[in-house]
Amino acid sequence: MNTEQLSPAKKTIVGVQFLFVAFGATVLVPLLIGINPATALFTAGVGTLIFHVVTKGRVPIFLGSSFAFIAPIIAATQQWGLPGTIAGLTSVSLVYFVMSALVKWQGRKLLDRLFPPVVIGPVIILIGLSLSGSAVNMAKDHWLLAFVSLITAILVLTLCRGLMKLVPILSGVAVGYIVAVCMGEVDFTGVANASWIAMPVAFDTITHFSWSPFLYMMPVAIAPVIEHIGDVYVVSAVADKDFVKDPGLHRTMLGDGLACLCSAFLGGPPETTYSEVTGAMSITKVTSPAVIRISALTAICFSVVGKLSALLQSIPQAVLGGIMLLLFGTIASVGVQNLMQHRVDMNDTRNVIIISVMLTMGLGGAVLSGGSFAISGIGLSAVIGVVLNLVLPKTKAEEK
């Protein structure tokens, strides 16, 4: 199918469908970290448009809220408050900018040396497991609602086909919410009081900037950056075009970084490439970047509907907790899958040391501090993993 020849009406319909695929994940992140879901919709739409400008409008990628930062944001909020934490997320863009420059200068080889699978795998595992306690605490508020959401998401993942298989989060939340309404567990006061049109973003977030959360968030960005590279390769395969060369990985990472910077300034979560939308493109065979831009514009339109934001914020915590029970375990399993796909030798003492130290320090709550500087959790584990990978001697087989 020549997707560029689709009529404007058909492009609009498919674009809205793609947003539907990304909607559940995009609004779940802000609901879990305590910010307005309309903000995430707005910044996802604007960030996607920025990405398309930087990549010359050639790459059909949608950017949405990154799950990698849920645990770090919640942990950082307890120390510096949510406004300070969101302002600190500006460091994420710096990581993307540096990686973009490195790729432009050295290609992927330097990144592969600094961040091999033996480092990236444990980081992804930690991202998933670090919030397991929070998932259980949210779910236990009302176990029935939690299990309804969880079971619905599992059934969608295992039994559904086509586009429906790509929306387990949205399906689980929707069914859990309907059951909660029937049980009288939903308070609609906020929805009734909300205006139809509302400003989705705040412009004063950066006034809360401080160096501690800035430095805390920086190492966490390593995993999403590596994931970004993999996603660009996948999108290239789906669209049957080499986006790694044209417009180039350095441009896609620069676009993602600018989107993250814009989101932080507007009070939203960091952005990341959404593989759900890539899956939808694979199913529909529609790979036109123009369709993705329609999805972005639709997200911006939805973000200004105050009633929609209030409705999302009325979702009971137990419903979200049920989804988290699956979601964070799934993220951790991706880390394990990463190690397996790249055939990381677990009989190699060097690999065992790197993975063991990273997991232990990440889950154990280790903190490295000095003066006003402090780094802990996933960020500290990522730094330690990189250092150990560089200093521990490799076997002759690994050096080849």
Description:
The chain is mostly helical and 400 residues long. The chain has helices at residues 8-33, 37-54, 70-88, 90-106, 109-114, 117-129, 132-139, 143-159, 168-182, 189-193, 211-217, 222-239, 244-265, 275-284, 289-303, 306-313, 317-341, 349-364, 377-391, 396-399; strands spanning 63-65, 271-273, 367-370, 373-376. Strands 1-2 form a two-stranded antiparallel sheet. A two-stranded antiparallel ribbon has the order 3-4. A hairpin with a 2-residue loop joins strand 3 and strand 4. It starts with 7 loop residues before the first helix and ends with a helix. 50% of the residues are buried. The model has no long low-confidence stretch (mean pLDDT 87).
Summed over residues and divided by their number, the pLDDT gives a mean of 87
Q: How many strand segments? A: 4
Q: Outline, from the CA principal axes?
A: globular
Spell out the helices and strands N to C: HHEHHHHHHHHHHHEHHHHHEEHH
